[in-house]
Queue: 2 jobs
Job 1
Amino acid sequence: MNELLWYSFIVFTLLQLAYWLLLFSRLIFYNNEKNQDTDSYPPVSVIICAQNEEENLVQFLPYFLEQEYPTYEVIVVDDHSFDNSSKILLDFQNKYTKLRVISLQGQKPYSGKKAALEAGIGSAAFDILLLSDADCYPASPYWIKRMQSKIRGIITLGLGFSPYEKRPGFLNAFIRFETIQAAIQYLSLAVVGFPYMGVGRNLVYKKSLFREANGFRDHYDLASGDDDLFVNAIASKDNTTIILDPSAYVLSIPKSSFREFYYQKSRHLQTGKRYKPLHQLLLGGLSLSHFSHYLLGIVLILLFPVYWPWVLAGYSIRMVTMLICIRPILRRMQQTDLLPWIPLLDVAFVLYYIFLTPAMIFGNTNKWN
């Protein structure tokens, strides 16, 4: 029994080391300027879906409308809002000629925002589509310029990064850490030729690609999936790139309570069940090895105290490796303030797996947002 636990602990620890050293470390050396075209500026359609976002529209829409880019339009799809969004958008239209508003009032409402996105994409005047959300804002006026710069030739899909704003408190630190962990995973896998998801807050692709994939037809029954399931279906090593440039980041407003955060993540988890088998295997192996590394170590120490020096050594080697790899990645993502908290946040991430297990098993509602 003790030997089985010990060897299992070693296997899962080695698997964790493999993920960090062979996969995630690729982001440290990634050349963001590779295949970047900074001399041409094709027209771009920015698409934002909004439902009862009056405050966010007032605060964040100007960031999208005042980009340093020669030819672009901003399409805001008002998805059955019943607040003052329509009036606010009309006021913006009177000031900014590049803003177009599509109202879905009077049409049948659907769960999720896929119908709204399809309406925006269908009316887009340009082939390059740049997607974001109403509760986000670009980190710089060069967001469009950076995000579109790699959509050339066979590259028709670009995955961006969207961190959360820094706020006081442990919950905010954990939300930002979880977002970074997810970004490290999907960006690293894209770099090695296995793209599996993107985030709709910062995603660029060609309208022609959307048509070739038949839009969201294969997962229209789910509220979420307009970003990750779409990318999972159409992304390949040949047509996908990543844009890891701080001026191309899109900042998001974090949830302010654990309940809101839990609801948001548990809803998103349902899409993972429809990922391609290889992607499920890679992500499942990562989560299982992380969880088992901690659990088996604790069990060994409690049941067989003679192993505690070796378990401590395993913990230390894995943590030092993680810190060495994640430090330059955090610097690149402009999140270095989290570095001293990584050991604590990493343990909290194991508890996070436990809290989300019921949602993974029983599912969640199909609410829009």
Job 2
Amino acid sequence: MPVPKKRRSKSKKRIKGACWKIVPPQLRPCPSCGALGVSHSACLECGQYKGKQVIQLKQKDTPKES
């Protein structure tokens, strides 16, 4: 089993561990509908990407009151 030859210093250990952090996703508004979404992907609200319809979304039917 491999064993490290030398001890890692405190500063090297902290530098190595500094990149492990949780970053929230970068959201941008959709140009057509204004809903927030992830960049470089189709909008989940309207289904458009770069001004073109790429996803056909199902419309929710609202129950009519009688």
